[in-house]
Amino acid sequence: MAGISIERVTKSYGPLQVLKDFSLEITDGEFVVFVGPSGCGKSTMLKILAGLEDATSGTVRIGGRDVTDLAPGDRDIAMVFQNYALYPHLTVARNMGFGLKMRGMPAAEIERRVNEAAQILGVAHLLDRKPKALSGGQRQRVALGRAIVREPQAFLMDEPLSNLDAKLRVHTRAEISALHQRLKTTTIYVTHDQTEAMTMADRIVIMRDGEIQQIADPDTMFRKPANLFVAGFIGSPG
Ligand code: ADP
Ligand code: MG
């Protein structure tokens, strides 16, 4: 049971209120996409879930456990960023296993998990290479692998495809969806791209200026947008 519960979260930076009363219940295994224009608070919400930022007020639960005041390392979640920041001097295998090693996991178990994730992601033939010998798409898969090997309760993905070219983005999008079908790990995926939201999400959360405009499955969002902003953003006839 690893749903995510966000209760009345607010976040201010000085006078700037970035999140205004954000509440959302995500069920175990759901793939939820946060979408909205640049600056609307998507990354801030993910950082609060990951423990990289503190909420000004409100509560966050993961798998029923109140994690609001827990350090990032004590939350059983893995974050994937757009700038995937692999260690240049380590091989793909070591990049993927690095976090597990830091936690003192036995080498044989690390190897098992790395090999399994590399198979799933189609990078098994690259395990001995260094990041500079990889394409952008391969690097992003290694970054995903680094999250998968942790076998976390949830994935948080912040615009993971935005550094890829258009063709690769479509391809990798399909791979992430297939991965979710296979692992069924609760996922929050942030994007400013409505097409990604419409094609990948179980439910879409549309944000604007730190507020949720609508929460719905893609079909409902398209057919019954809550307001003109949602209709315009989703490209629905309204
Ligand atoms: P998004 O990911 O939707 O583009 P962000 O969550 O990154 O938006 O940012 C939301 C707002 O908060 C923006 O106006 C941004 O400038 C502001 N912001 C983000 N981080 C900080 C910070 N550390 N200090 C001050 N303002 C910030
Ligand atoms: Mg962002």
UniProtKB/TrEMBL annotation:
Family listed: Belongs to the ABC transporter superfamily.
GO biological process: carbohydrate transport
Membrane topology: Peripheral membrane protein
Entry keyword set: ATP-binding, Cell membrane, Membrane, Nucleotide-binding, Translocase, Transport
Cell compartment(s), UniProt: Cell inner membrane
GO cellular component, one term: ATP-binding cassette (ABC) transporter complex, substrate-binding subunit-containing
ABC transporter domain boundaries: 4-234
Name recorded for this polypeptide: ABC transporter ATP-binding protein
A GO MF label: ABC-type transporter activity
